[in-house]
Amino acid sequence: MKQLRLLRVGWWLQLKIRGRSTFDGLLGILYPLFFATTIFFIYRQGSDPTALVGAAVGASVMGVWSSTATSASSVLQGERRQGTLELLVAAPSSFPLLIVPITMALATVGLYSLVATLLWGRFVFDIPVRVDQPLAFGAAVLVTVLAVSLMGFLLAVTAVRYRYSWALGTAFELPVWLVCGFLVPLSALPAWVRPISWLLPPTWGVSAIRAAALGGSPWGDVLLCAVTAAVYALIGTALSGRLIDSARARATLALS
Amino acid sequence: MNSWRIFVLGGWTSYRALFSWLSPWILVPTFIIEPVFQVLFFASVGKSAGVGTATFFLIGNAVQYASIPCLFAMSNTIGGERNSQTLSLLLVSPARRIPLFVGRAMPVILNGFGVTIVTLVLGALVLRVDLPRSSWLPLVVVVAVCAFSCTGLGLMTAGIAMRVRETAVLSNIVFGVLLIFCGVNVPLSALPGWMATTGGWLPLTHGIAAARELAGGATWGAVAGAVGTELLVGACYLVGGLVLLAFFEAESRRSATLELA
Amino acid sequence: MAVIEVAGLERSYKARTGIRRGSAKEVHAVRGISFEVESGELFGLLGPNGAGKTTTIKMLITLLLPTGGSARVLGHDVVREAREVRRRVGYVFGGDRGLYERLSALDNLRYFSELYGVPAREQKERIGELLELVGLTGRERERVEGYSRGMRQRLHIARGLLHRPDVLFLDEPSIGIDPVGARELRATVATLVQQGTTVLLTTHYMFEADELCDRIAVIADGSIVASGTPAELKRGVVDGRVVEVEVYGAVDTALAPLRAIPGVRSVAVEESGQAQLVVVRAEPDAEVTSAVLACLSGVRLGRVATREPTLEDAYVELLSAP
Q1: ipTM of predicted complex
Q2: Which of B172, C90, C192, C306 could make an SS bond with C160 (beta carbons 3.0 to 4.6 A apart)?
Q3: Where do the structural domains in chain A lie, given as residue ranges?
Q4: Inter-chain contact C63–A6, Cβ cutoff 8 Å?
Q5: Do C219 and C192 share a structural domain?
Q6: Which of C228, C249, C266 marks a domain boundary?
Q7: CB distance B48–A164 less than 8 Å?
Q8: Handedness of CA C317, C318, C319, C322 (dihedral sign)
């Protein structure tokens, strides 16, 4: 199908673009590792060794969200600065199909961080990281990456109106780690926060990944992750149409 | 232009030029939402691991977050000047270096100070932490000293940034180093020996320890030593940064490495 | 049926003049212009910077919504049938931006051919064909960040042609290109027109418009001040005379008296190295030389020359008309 091919080609070429800045890539892996290291030290002082393993798995996913959240909100600004935003809008393709590959590439870059964090935990902190159901683990990771890219798509589309959109994206980085239960079980959060957590795809994604790694059934959570992500995709698509029309009316597609 | 004017006007103007934000859209997310959530995040992690107290994580993260303005603003001052190609104009001006660069540091210190105080207040409200009233004034002093010493580190980072192109990446890495080594979320006693020793040589470590003691009811006299150490550490980084800047400036005149074009 | 039909097209902006909200003034970039372009024609929109050329092009390729009037490209309204327009037009603009720097030229073309709906099995051949056309074969695997301005421009043209557009919009394509590169570019454009593509070109280089275009519309300050073939435009001033006087010194006080000389159409002052050049354009039969010299009597003079007008003179005269 033409649309799938467009997504695939777009994703691959955007990955090439982002993969080529070694310094940025290094930071994308290092930064979550700083937080993971701190977290490992905190849990090591505690008395529960299984909590440490759970923390390692949860911490590994932090990078997937970070690499997307911090960059997604400035994706459209970046395209505008490069002079390519106009070319994207002037194309006869549906605009969401052009932006989703970009956020997909961002989330894919986060996979490096996932692997790096697990290895770091295993070899530097001697955490007995294990993956009980590799296939389910892979599926859960894939769905989570996709879900995060769709959230990134919504972020990209909503943030572009704001001149300082990058600040908004970075502000969401830690709140999602906290609210989606990456490290802290949802039961530890105040009751009023839980509905918010349920509406965020990473909550189900991280739960699925943890279940696939440490024992449990991930499939229900994988489904919920996909469903919530689809909602974000729909909202993002609806908003992007209005966004482009507004930009055409207000002449904000180009820098000059 | 006399030194004082260079100091005040130069500092304020460059700061405004860099952060031309009269917009709450940057101030609120970057200086209020992010630090408060860093506090909440680690406080929850600690609670879930059964380690530490809310006060412990509040103070550590609130002070550490001052490094965001102190590092980024300082290296952006230099990096930003290079990007907008005003650095060469600046360096060939007859203005004296010390008031020039220290003047640029003043708004940064104030910024760092402000961020920590706001984070402490908001974090204490959310986490329901009670800081004893007697500790408030000493805490303010400690926070100011930490902001100063962190800015010294920022100046040093800016000096290194004169050679390395990726200033933002450098600042991010230093942020991470401070997060791990300065006893922000993990007491130095729980870190391997070499890490704790390194932490002792970095800004914020002594200040955070002093602030925690004050929060626990200690008197000023008990922490004055640590505060003095913090001040000294900051001064060393400040001087180191100025020396580096002078060195690179001289070197660039010889070998055109400032990439001013 | 005309390929491009523009009727009373308008575009205005609110420009912020201060930090506070509310201090805005309305800027009229395009003030109700109308023209038509026939199939296979090379139409030029000629005007100085800020005249509204780029704004007009952007409205025609659906990147900007007009604030008044209407336009149709290939029979489709640019506002209501944007996607149909986008399928069949190409957009090429001058300058360094508009390409993915970290990708090779080949990857850039692969990406854009996907975006612009070139069928998968045709892409490889089409890309090869276009690289050949613009002379970039052999360098397509290099990253764009290492390309010169001329190479980027050529890549832009290749990109604009990927989906075989019926209409090509070129916005100041030879900006910043060396003369040899610009000449090659013009030759490519001429070939395209011969093959049946309709081209709308904006430029502020008069000789370029003169050389290439079948018809020109001169646009200034948002309105079309003249249109026609290059020959027609020149005819408007070809029967006339131009007196050029080199002066050393201030001539501001002499301008009004110069303009008041009977038979003078326009007076302009240009910089010419150390001196200034006073250019007086006059009616064909008016003997103005001695009157001009009389007005400039207090100033030190250099060379004095009389000549026939060129398209540049037509252009200047059109722009300076009230």
Answers
A1: 0.91
A2: C90
A3: 2-250
A4: no
A5: yes
A6: C228
A7: no
A8: positive
